[in-house]
Structures are given as C-alpha cells and as structure tokens.
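Lecture 7, part 2: worked example. A protein chain together with EPZ.
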Amino acid sequence: MKINGGIPLHGTIKTQGAKNAALPVMAVCLLLRGGTLTLDNVPELYDVNTMIELLKDLGVEIKINRDEKNSQVIFKVPEDLKWEVSETLARKMRASSLVLGPLLANYGRVSLPLPGGCSIGARPIDLHLKGLKQMGAEIEIANGVVHAQVKGKLRGRRIYLDFPSVGATENLMMAASLATGETIIENIAREPEIDNLAAALRCVGVPVELEGTGDVRIKGIEKTSSGRERVIPDRIEACTYILAGIITNGHIKIEDIVPSHIDAILAKLEESGAKFKVKKNMIEIFPTKKKLHPVSIKTMPYPGFPTDSQPQMAAALALARGVSTIEENVFQARFLYAQELNRMGADIQISRDVAIIRGVEKLQGTLVKATDLRAGAALIIAGLAAEGQTVVDDMVHVWRGYEAIDKKLKSLGAQVELGVNS
Ligand code: EPZ
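Predicted complex, written out as structure tokens:
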C-alpha cells in the first residue's frame, strides 16, 4: 500500500467485528450436530476466510450474508463431520488450533497439523494439550500432526492454567461444553473475546459461569442446540485508528467501540497528552498542537496493556518528545517492526524484551515490509505521519486482520492507494 504522509485525518469510521473473537466463536459450530449457528458482525478478513474454508473442509455448510448493515455467517452443521484438519489450511493460521477442543468433545477424535511458529515467536499449544489430557484425551504427536482421541466422553474436572493463555482458555471452554460433569478452569485469560465465547456457548445451550474472578465453571451437556450470537467490536483495530488520528494530529470519530475494552490504552494515551473524548460507544480524537509525552509501557494479559497494540503504540511514540520504553511480556519476539520503523528515521533500540524509543523530529517515507499484521499496522500509522511516500510491502499480513483498511483510511482523508500485488 502506498501512503502519502503528513495529512491530518478527519471524519468518522466504524470498527469491524473483532478478529480474535470471531475465530473462536466460529469454532463453536463444531459443538453442534444437525444444528445451525448464526453469527452477526463477522469481519471480512483473510483469517476469517481461512477459518470458513477449514470448517467447510470438515463438512460444515456455510452461508455468508453481507450488506452494509450486517455481515452475517450461518453455519449449518450435519450429523457427522470429518475430524482430520487439512494441512494447508491448518498451517495458514495458528487459530486453527481452536478446533481441537470442540472436535474432541463432539466426535472423540481429531487430527490437527501443528500450527507453525510465526514472526512474533514460537506458538506452542502445550497448555491446550495438557488441559485436554487432564480431561481424559490420549494425545500423540507424529510427523507434526497432533492426534487426539478419547474413549467415550471427555471428563469434566478442575484445571489450572500455568499462564492465562487466550487460546488454551478458549479450547478448554469448548472441550468442557460436552464433557461429563462440571469443569472449573482457573487462571483463565480475561480478554473480552473470552466473554464473547461464553455468550456463544450459552446461545447453543451450554451453561457457562464467568464472574470475572479469573476462573470459569462449565457444566457439560449432552447435546447443543442451534443459536445466534453477535461478534464484539475489534478493540485492537479501534486502537490502530485512534493512533492514526493522533499521529497525524487529526480530528476523527470511531464508532461501535466498547470503551472499557481499551481502558489500558486510553490510560497511556492520556498520560502521553493525547486529546480525546469517550462517549457511550464512540471515541472522538482531537488535534493537539503538542507532541506526545514519552511513556513507559509493559504489555500484560488483559486487562493490562495489550501486546497486539504495542507495535502501533511504538510508531506513535517514535515522534514523542523524549524517550519511551515498551516491555513485551507476552510474546518472545515482537519487535521485528522496529528495524523497519528505523528505516523511516525512527530511533528504536531493542535490548532483550525492551524497546527503547527515542522520539525524533520527523519520519521519512520509504519502502518498508510488514512482518506480521500488527507490525504492518504500525508501519501504516508511521507512513501516515511521515514526509513523502511510504510503501508498505507484504500487505497480505495486514489483510489477515484489518478489513478494508485502505478504504477506511481514504474515508478519513488519507492519500493511500494499493499497489498492483497488494
Ligand atoms: C491470541 O493468541 C490472539 N490470537 C493474539 O492475537 C494475541 O496476541 C494473544 O491471544 C494474546 O492476547 C487470537 O485470538 C486468534 P496466548 P494466542 O495463548 O491464543 C504462550 C493478533 O495480532 N503459550 O494467550 O496464541 C504463547 O507462546 C494475534 O491478532 C504457551 O507457551 O495467545 C505466548 O507467548 C497475535 N503455551 C503467550 O503464551 C500455550 O499452550 C500468549 O499466548 C499457549 C500459549
């Protein structure tokens, strides 16, 4: 994508449905037999399409109704499904691991090619597998494929997660839905996407008690029913546009947000002197004459500062009035974008898991490469503020998580255009 920087953004956009809520909520359909799951506000993204292809390949019939008001996806599940996941589809997206729990719970068997690592670090699923084993699954890994099976039904029990892993929480909640007896999972992830999954499980008849105390209680049921649920707004996409508005000293409104989902980000932005007003489900960003103050950030599991927003924040802090630091505590290596920002004139040094960001006067446009979707978002944000033209290559990463980002930015007055093979 080509970006001519230096234009203050102005106008109003609406967030997409959350990618990281849509993916687990779509996997809930694998808990059905001969039923229908209807989801509203499903974003149009590469990763969502990959999950749709993967579910179709397993035998789910899928209907997509998209119009400007709603994007609805209907999952019609037959009495019986395949339980082997295709290698090509599984390796396209780590979230394919989310079919483990529901397929094992519903069919007693699943074969899933192990998800590959990616540019932000290894993506092990040891916590997912440990929990499933504790529920009675027999698991072996051969030639990079996880083969899991259980004699009879998975058994509900108390499970403690060594780390509040989002994916492990989601897989085990779905596994518990059709297990015998009650499952209590402790030290679960508290991301809003977990609440969305709980709502989706309840809509197909699974009693889920989620009191925000860090654990979840699920009483396994015999058979799920059909249901309908809505995907929550994408909090990470929202913060990407908030930072685009701030870095270009623009005046924008972002509609369909849940303010409490971005509290950690708003607290940091307030600390750095950004001007904004939060209304019921909308945020308005105002231009300020002053540059951002430097801040120190530590990424943490929710409700801490989200790791998925640290690259975008680094781009904004590259032009702050002093030295900021970002400590990445969730993933092993999520600073690949820094060297790309430095090619634009930023001054970011990485020492182990800390990025030291010395604010500079300006950034210059040049050719940069997206290494993962949030890194791509950071480079786009930097390009919007840089002098001259920035060309962000490998946009395929960005399309995985940002619906129509070129159109949304154009509607905010940005001068962007897509290159031939983006
Ligand atoms: C989800 O990934 C999100 N993806 C990620 O968003 C997000 O960054 C992450 O949660 C943290 O919020 C989806 O929801 C599809 P984790 P997930 O399990 O579930 C380690 C984006 O940009 N770990 O909470 O994979 C793991 O290596 C993506 O939209 C284990 O060691 O995250 C990582 O260091 C990127 N063993 C940490 O925990 C396990 O069994 C957090 O992983 C599982 C995880």
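Residues 19-20, 23, 94-95, 121-128, 163, 165-168, 189, 191, 307-308, 330-331, 373-374, 401 surround EPZ (CB under 6 Å). The chain has two domains: 2-16+233-417, 19-230. Keep this in mind for problem set question 3.
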